[in-house]
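Sanity check record (used in CI):
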Amino acid sequence: MAIENKQDEISEMLVELSEMLAYTAKYQHDEVPFGEDLNYLENYIGIMKKRFVDKFTVHTELDEALYRYSVPKFFLQPFVENALIHGFEDIEEGGEIRITGFIRNGVRQFVIEDNGVGMSREAIGRLMNGQHEKERKDSIGIDNVDKRIKLLYGETYGVVVHSEPGAGTKVTITLPA
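Expected output for Histidine kinase domain-containing protein:
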């Protein structure tokens, strides 16, 4: 119906949403192919770009070797969501998110950086302990991602958040190669 009524944007959003739902239903395991999780993230970003027109851009730089590995399901999306909902909350445009991924010394690292409002050490502590200022029942949770990584791969791996008020946020996710 959206196509017939020349509602291209709605049509695109429905396709992205249906792919996200298919991903959610298809993979019942803790780990998924990296490319599949990245596709989920790209669909999420596509929908959010339509919702927040001109508010943000996303740049990715990912080592091709990463596609040979599995990753924890939904391991990048919560950090992008946090940047959009909290980091860019008070801006109209100019938000930037940079996602990089590489392999070095037997370790996979993924870095999500934004130029948002940043947060204090206390806010980072609450975030990493699952204590959010705005309780959200629909969120996977950043602390949840860290706990799942540690359960899957060991205490050496996980999530580290660096941020300062007014200086954006940098999240580093470390996984074994």
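DSSP finds five helices and seven strands in the chain. If this sentence no longer matches the regenerated tokens, the check is flagged for review.
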